[in-house]
């Protein structure tokens, strides 16, 4: 009696015994079958985020992967190999591999691991809450009383070091910090506009991002409904557009 292994099972069993370098080399051969495989090195590095990098230099390919992936299942390394090598050679990334990788990064345990890494290794370059014109601490406490019955625990607050006009504010859950753009800390900027940006970021504490599969819902229906309770919402948005 003979037993035969299906193609899919054969691929999966092969993956189990491949090193990261072998996985990258195999993917390279599939993407560029007429090109000799260069020397490939793969290193897991202590980055402060989930980013991974690849470069071709002096005929050698060097891949530097986030150490969050060290010990990840081989199919995940394979998916990342497709993503990085396709980017390196400007080829379209197969949707199946992109989906597989994003789905893995969105797993709850991986998200928590990444959050811990950002907190331990990352650095927030901000100034304190007291600006030249506005005090973020005072604004936070005022909004806390008006909209949250004073029950919201105060996170770290700070002004950005750069005057960004594209990102007026953000909440960083890794550092539990609300940061507002320094561009708002000017006499010509209405307090109403600053309050609205702060209120928006406070809602991110109240309504965290929802994760479903590989999708992230940043502004949930509950978030949008709560945002409409802000007094002067329409005027605040008009003011911000003027920036």
How would you describe what is shown here?
This protein has 243 residues and is α/β, with parallel strands linked by helices. Helix content is 44%, strand content 16%. Strands 4-5-7-6 form a 4-stranded mixed sheet, with helices on one face. The protein has a 3-stranded mixed sheet with strand order 1-3-2, with helices on one face. α6 packs across α7 (191-206) and α7 crosses α9. The longest helix has 16 residues, at 191-206. It is elongated. 21% of the residues are buried.
Shape category: elongated
**CATH-scheme architecture of the largest domain:** 2-Layer Sandwich
How are the strands ordered across the major sheet? 4-5-7-6
Fraction of residues in helix: 40-55%
Query: pLDDT average, as an integer?
Result: 87
Which structural class should the secondary elements be placed in?
A: alpha/beta
Find the count of extended strands (DSSP E, 2+ residues): 9
Low-confidence stretches: 1-11
User: Can you tell me the CATH superfamily of the largest domain?
Assistant: Metalloproteases ("zincins"), catalytic domain
Total domain modules: 2
What's the tally of helices?
9
- Could you tell me how far the N terminus lies from the C terminus, measured between alpha carbons in angstroms? 77 Å
The proportion of residues in beta strands is 15-25%
**Quick one: biggest sheet?**
4 strands, mixed
> What is the H/E order?
HHEEEHHHEHEEEHEEHH
Provide the CATH topology of the largest domain. Answer: Zincin-like
């Amino acid at each position: 009696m003979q037993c035969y292994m299906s193609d899919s099972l054969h691929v999966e069993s092969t993956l189990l015994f491949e090193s990261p370098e072998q996985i990258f080399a195999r993917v390279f051969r599939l993407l560029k079958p007429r090109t000799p495989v260069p020397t490939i090195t793969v290193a897991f590095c202590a980055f402060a985020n989930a980013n991974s990098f690849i470069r071709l230099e002096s005929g050698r390919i060097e891949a530097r992967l986030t150490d969050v992936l060290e010990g990840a299942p081989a199919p995940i390394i394979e998916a990342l190999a497709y993503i990085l090598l396709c980017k390196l050679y400007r080829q379209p990334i197969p949707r199946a591999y992109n989906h597989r990788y994003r789905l893995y990064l969105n797993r709850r345990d991986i998200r928590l691991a990444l959050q811990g890494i950002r907190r331990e290794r990352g650095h927030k370059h901000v100034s304190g809450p007291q600006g030249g014109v506005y005090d973020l601490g005072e604004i936070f406490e005022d909004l806390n009383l008006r909209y949250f019955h004073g029950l919201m625990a105060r996170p770290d607050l700070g002004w950005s070091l750069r005057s960004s006009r594209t990102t007026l504010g953000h909440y960083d859950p890794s550092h539990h910090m609300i940061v507002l753009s320094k561009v708002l800390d000017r006499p010509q900027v209405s307090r109403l506009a600053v309050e609205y940006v702060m209120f928006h970021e406070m809602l991110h504490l109240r309504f965290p991002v929802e994760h479903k599969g590989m999708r992230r819902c940043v502004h949930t229906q509950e978030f949008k409904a709560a945002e409409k309770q802000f007094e002067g919402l329409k005027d605040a948005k008009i003011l911000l557009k003027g920036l």
